[in-house]
């Protein structure tokens, strides 16, 4: 039998109750066929119904247009096999759910709150960042304190746009009718159910995993009841913007005060990363472009959390995009090999960015040549405004062996020891 590419389900009729069946699915592309995906299921017991009244069982076929296209592309690029297990499990669960629905239809209750927080779409599979499904399908039994009613948030202006979402400056109505300016990360207008899954994963990750720290971007809350926009998250507004841009804008106005600020930034980022490490969170994308600055120029680590594979792929080749100039040697082929110690290597690169005032790492070396140079022992030289201590720290972060690199807790302690604790110093200079 053939299933049209636009079909959302296919009904198999004349099935016997309490019988095990195996269905086999194949994606066809011209004269070529993919390897089969087999689904085994057992029909339920239908008490009080005659055999003639058993119309059959409806198998929910999550082979939508997006899945078919993704399946064909993945298959033709040799990646379809990696998705079989996930596809099998998801469709099997849908079969079970539909069978139970038919059996217990009179007693079933639909939980609308759970429905809007749970997504299922097979266009993305667990290929290295299982957090997308783990957090994307997380279900809560009641409203959470971080949920914000859509009527309390007004989008003011768009300040940035990415492949996944648009970033708006927004106004949030808080207690006693006070309004707070925040940042709203909103799905693009043409978003899909898969996009909602990923956004839901990011929201739940920040709400349940990240917690709060002065040097990590603050999760303010999320709006989940806006159907046109889909779920979107609210983050603190960092008025001074992206650190890399701030650094580049200081190239013609270097003063002792600016140099002092650079030192403080290295400390702030180390503290933020030490906190994430304590929560067992691997950043994977640590770079100056993912550090935000508050109005006081306090640095906030951002840019981490669940991502789907297509967010990290080249649009032309479909291959994984690796920010190789920021990556440790063990991650230069795939971000799936990232660890907390590879984040330490990236922190060393960020130190270099800070003291070079936002230069691109490995100046004069093409990205394709970085891996060879690093493997052969090449390390970047000390930037102009870098003290000996910070350059020595960079080199420690750039050790080939992961076990030889310092942990973030040791980095925090080392930087902290360079600050005095006199009354004239800022509070974050004091040893913690």
Automatic annotation (TrEMBL):
Which Gene Ontology MF annotations are present? ATP binding; transmembrane receptor protein tyrosine kinase activity
Q: Where does it reside?
A: Membrane
Tell me which PROSITE patterns the record gives: PROTEIN_KINASE_DOM (PS50011)
- Topological category with respect to the lipid bilayer: Single-pass membrane protein
Domain of life, per lineage: Eukaryota
Tell me the keywords, alphabetical order: ATP-binding, Glycoprotein, Kinase, Membrane, Nucleotide-binding, Phosphoprotein, Receptor, Transferase, Transmembrane, Transmembrane helix, Tyrosine-protein kinase
Chain ranges of the Protein kinase domain: 153-419
Q: Which InterPro entries match?
A: Ig-like_fold, Kinase-like_dom_sf, Prot_kinase_dom, RTK, Ser-Thr/Tyr_kinase_cat_dom
One term under GO cellular component: plasma membrane
Which GO BP terms apply? cell surface receptor protein tyrosine kinase signaling pathway
Which residue ranges does UniProt annotate as crossing the membrane?
53-75
Give the protein name, as stated in the record.
Answer: Fibroblast growth factor receptor 2
User: What organism does this protein naturally occur in?
Assistant: Mizuhopecten yessoensis (Japanese scallop)
Lineage, broadest ranks? Eukaryota, Metazoa, Spiralia, Lophotrochozoa, Mollusca
